[in-house]
Each structure stands twice: as structure tokens, then as C-alpha cells.
From TrEMBL:
Family: Belongs to the peptidase M4 family.
Name of the molecule in the record: Zn-dependent metalloprotease
The entry's keywords: Hydrolase, Metal-binding, Metalloprotease, Protease, Signal, Zinc
Residue ranges of every copy of the Peptidase M4 C-terminal domain listed in the record: 165-318
Organism encoding this protein: Isoptericola hypogeus
Upper classification of the organism: Bacteria, Bacillati, Actinomycetota, Actinomycetes, Micrococcales
Domain of life, per lineage: Bacteria
Stretches assigned to the Peptidase M4 domain: 8-162
Amino acid sequence: QTATSVEGTGVTSSGEEVPLQLTEDAGTYSMVDRSNGDTAISTYDGRGYDVLQVLGQMPASLPVVSGPDDRFDGEDTESGAVDAHVNAGHVYDYYAALGRDGLDGEGGDMTSIVGVTSNFRPFVNAFWDGTKMVYGSGDSEYRTLSADLDVVGHEMTHGVIEHTAGLIYAYQSGAMNEAIADYFGNAVDVDVSGTSMDDPQAGLLGEDLCRTAAPRDCALRDLNDGRTTADIMGATWEYDSGGVHYDSTIFSGALWDIREKLGAAKADRLVYTALSQYMTPTDGFYAGREAVVQAARDLGLSARDRLAVATSFAAHGITL
Ligand code: ASN
Ligand code: ZN
């Protein structure tokens, strides 16, 4: 008896029925997706576990999400397992289209843990811990954190960044790390959901997590918030690693403007080339602009497109 790949069905947090890539072994169906070459995409049930118990390690007792048949709904929807599993597959496909084989670029596995708590209380956050994605439980205001593809794309992009530019997670290089995670997180979400770049909600991150509040009021960030280098926080290290989640929209705002002007395919190729070929660990906003400008030259973008790149950065105060 050997394990085989099967396609089952999952119900997402939004109530949609979607195909789910599973592994079946002796009548047990598990959230292990082996349909992408070497990469195994696995989803674990972290409910009852605390952030500190899963950080940088996999507790031996942590169960991979599994069941007696190929349909996952009910508590596997509530926990965020269905969304984490399906969304990780979308992010794999998105990067594959850019020529990248997984987060490490070498077909390494992708692991998600859903439903964890912090201090054993509801946890409204998610993170990449250096090897895997960890999603919080959510609370009465926010759904389980894997329920929005832009959040999943954000966390997984931290893995891509770690294996490419390696932007140091503090101050401006950290804000660029955050900006690129937001850019690709929103990009994959907008593409898969078919949202227009003109839709004001396209630039919101985490808007699908809102249980009752209006998306604009509870979204985690808005790439169209119009912030510029004049608004830089200059926060201390103790505070949000030097303000990485505040100053990020200065850079991500410029990148999102570029996506609006150049279109998705060209802009994504441009930002990915800048990230994987030209950015270096200590880059700040100006070096980041230079990296994008270099990539634009590299890719042979037209003078008109390169002017659009320049005006997008300038509109956010990132001038040469
Ligand atoms: N959700 C946050 C992030 O991925 C968690 C953190 O502060 N690292 O940026
Ligand atoms: Zn982040």
C-alpha cells in the first residue's frame, strides 16, 4: 500500500468549494500536496499550540490536517486549514509563472501551521519563521489569518526575499522587505480573484479577514495610502523593528503605482527581477529605486514605461 495523490474538495472561509490537492494513504486523506514536482505543500493543525511552541521547530505531536474522506469543511474551514492549503498552492503557481521553483527557488517544501494562539489567547497575526508559515487563530473581529490570499502571499514572499535579496528586517531595508511582501501578496490575490487594479480594494491587505467591519476600516494596510518619504517614522529598533510595517507603504505605494501604470505582467516581472537580481541586504529606498531602474533597463522596458517608473517613485518622495 503506497500513498497516492488525489484531488479532493475543500470549502473556504468565504464558503466557496475549491479543488484540494491531497495525499491518500490506507483510507486516510491528508493535506499534503505533491502535485508540484519536488515541492510538498503541507498544512498542519496548530490549534491548541502557542506561537512559542512552533517557532523554528515542528513539535513531533503536531498533526498534519487529515480526515477519512476527500472533503474538508466544517472545522477544517474554521481553523483556516482549507484556505492555507489552497492559497499556498496559488502562491506556488504564481512564482512558478515567474520562473521560480518554490520559496527557496530549488523546489523546497512549503509548510503551513494554522490556528495558533499567542499566550494561549486569540492571535491576530501571521509570520514566516525562517522555514514555514504560521497563521494565527483570528478573533471576534478577524477571521483566521490564512483566509486572505494576500496575507498568505505576504508571508510566503518573506521566504522568497530571504532566499534572494535578503533584505535585513530593520529600518529602511526592513520596510522594503515588508513592501515587497505586500506587493506580491496583493499581486497574487488580485490576479487569482480577478480584481481590477482600478478597484480601490485592490490595494488593501487583509481586507477579506474582516468579519463585520467595512474592509477599509479593518484592513491591515493600504498600498494606496499615499505616504511619502516626508512621512517616514524614523522609529526605534524597539518599535516594530524600526517601523517596518509603517514605512513600508512609502515603497510599496510606489511599486503599486507602477503596477497600475505598466500592468500586472510587466510590473511583476520588473519587481521580481529587481528583487532577485539587484537588491542587496542593506538597501534602503533609494538603492531600492536604483534596483528597479536597473531591472527596467535589463528587461528593455520602453522609455515611456521607464518614465512611469521614475514618476511613481518620485510621487512617494523616493527621488535620486
Ligand atoms: N505579519 C507580520 C509580518 O509578516 C508579522 C511580523 O511582524 N513579522 O510582517
Ligand atoms: Zn511581513
